[in-house]
Specification:
Number of helices: 18
Helix content: over 70%
Shape: globular
Oligomer: single chain
Radius of gyration: 23 Å
């Protein structure tokens, strides 16, 4: 079995602060690149004369590559050393981001996004495993809270900065931000981040790594293609089958391997299982909410992409604040109670948005629900992340961190597929009953979505009525999506109450300042 090297714990508070700053800057570069291109789809399509399918490949290939390689590259960080893998990942990510910003063709852009995903998969698990491996137990929870705040709120901040760059400059400037963050993170890592790793006595689990890649890629493809192609389409069913077979094969191999990539027996422990389930569901609901909120701001309220992104900032700020508060709350009332409180707040936020949203109410009708959601997600994510990382020994923190990140990525794909499908179905049923007397062409555009209804309403005799019908239909679909999220959160709350991590010592020492 693997054995750890010399004690990697850092006892100097100043150096711990530098380590935390460095890994959070690196994490911000990865998170900002996940959603950055979403705000520039039209400009990219025009620049490369690319189809919508090509543009989606540019966006999604990064996320798929990142999710697929997290587990094996997290294990590589444990074996080869977290500092060299972090620096190598920053180098790959920085070069690939610069190549994407300078890309002359669609093919170069897609290749650059693939390499960016590889670099991100080297960076992301290491940023958390460095914290869990080098911070003392009394300070680890607070450091994880800071990391979680960046991971949760950094995506919204990255979307806002990306939208700002597209509006005031060019889409190519989107890649200046990650390159700058990479340079800053590398400078700090070279000075402050120590090298910690395990000494392995068995070969690297290559077969388990390949099985995990197959399973993750297949499930993500199924969740991406299901809403578009249909859940009974051959590509969706084949992807689900391959994902299921890959998961079964991975579990069977890990049970017999002497040094498994991930010991699946650990999922019998409450901490690892409940932490993974909570992150999967909470990030799924969060991603699904963004799918609903953005069109509401842009098509119902008529806001630009920049203003719509800015409207999400209260939610991000509260999420980040709650992530910092969660370790102190967990030390007083326990991780399970803190997770349950966050899930309950998140469910309340969804219910508030379902009840209060309207065309006339505008932003103020959804702001209370957004605030509750932000607080709830922040409270639930930090103890869930700590439950996962504390379930594996210090020398296996790369795998623990990767598992945490895989749960987030799969949850995001699942949430977008589920809540997006509910919204689309609800809108379709509502708009159908409002199309009597509307010309066939305009009716067909309206059925395709609210964007089509607004774009082609001018050609009808009563454009204002059609626009109003589309907006009200969207709000109807919104309510159904929110209530679906409430059901998910209610089931999650029941699970955490019954199977959440046990409370060991609620009176742990108060973490020192990080």
């Amino acid at each position: 079995m693997p054995t750890a090297t010399a004690d990697p714990v850092i006892h100097d508070p100043r150096r711990r602060r530098s380590v935390l700053i460095g890994v959070c800057i690196a994490l911000m570069a990865v998170i900002a690149s996940v959603s950055g291109l979403n705000v520039a789809q039209p400009q990219i399509a025009v620049a490369f004369d690319a189809s919508q399918g090509d543009v989606l490949w540019m966006i999604n290939l990064y996320t798929v590559t990142l999710a697929a390689l997290l587990l094996p590259l997290g294990a590589v960080g444990d074996r080869w050393g977290r500092r060299p893998v972090l620096l190598a990942g920053l180098a790959v990510f920085g070069v690939a981001s610069a190549a994407a910003g300078l890309a002359p063709t669609t093919e170069v852009m897609i290749a650059a996004r693939f390499l960016s995903g590889v670099g991100a998969a080297m960076i992301m698990p290491v940023t958390l495993s460095v914290i869990t491996a080098t911070f003392p137990d009394t300070e680890r929870a607070k450091a994880i809270g800071v990391w979680t705040a960046v991971a949760g709120g950094g995506g919204i901040l990255g979307m806002y900065l990306s939208a700002l760059l597209v509006d005031v400059a060019s889409w190519r400037w989107l890649f200046v931000l990650p390159v700058g963050l990479v340079i800053a993170a590398a400078a700090v890592a070279l000075q402050a981040v120590p090298n910690s790793r395990e000494t392995a006595t068995h070969r690297f689990d290559l077969i388990g790594s390949l099985a995990s890649v197959v399973a993750v890629v297949a499930f993500i493809l199924a969740l991406h293609e299901g809403p578009e192609q249909g859940w009974t389409a051959s590509v969706t069913l084949v992807s689900l089958l391959v994902g299921a077979l890959g998961t079964i094969g991975f579990a069977a191999w890990e049970l017999r391997h002497p040094a498994p990539l991930l010991d699946v027996r650990l999922f019998g422990e409450r901490g690892l299982a409940s932490g993974s389930v909570v992150l999967l569901a909470v990030f799924g609901v969060q991603a699904g909410i963004f799918v609903v909120l953005f069109p509401y701001f842009q098509t119902v309220l008529g806001w630009s992409g920049l203003v719509a992104t800015l409207a999400l900032m209260p939610m991000a700020v509260l999420m980040m604040a709650a992530s910092g508060l969660a370790p102190r709350l967990a030390a007083r009332i326990g991780a399970r109670s803190t997770m349950a409180a966050g899930i309950a707040l998140g469910g309340l936020g969804l219910a508030l948005m379902a009840v209060l949203v309207s065309v006339e109410g505008g932003y103020l009708s959804v702001l209370p629900g957004m605030a509750a959601m932000g607080l709830g997600m922040g409270l639930s994510m930090t103890p869930s992340t700590e439950a996962i990382t504390s379930s594996l020994p210090r020398e296996r923190q790369g795998v623990a961190s990767a598992l945490n990140d895989v749960a987030r990525e799969l949850g995001t794909a699942f949430g977008v597929a589920l809540l997006g499908a509910v919204l689309t179905a609800g809108y379709g049923r509502a708009i159908e009953s409002r199309l009597d007397g509307v010309p066939a062409a305009a009716a067909a555009d309206a059925r395709s979505g609210i964007a089509g209804a607004l774009a082609n309403a001018d050609g009808t005799s009563d454009a204002a009525a059609l626009i109003r019908s589309a907006q009200e239909s969207f709000v109807h679909g919104w309510r159904q999506a929110m209530w679906t999220g409430v059901v998910v959160m209610a089931l999650l709350l029941a699970y955490v109450i019954l199977r959440g991590p046990r409370r060991t010592d609620a009176r742990q020492p108060e973490p020192e300042g990080v």
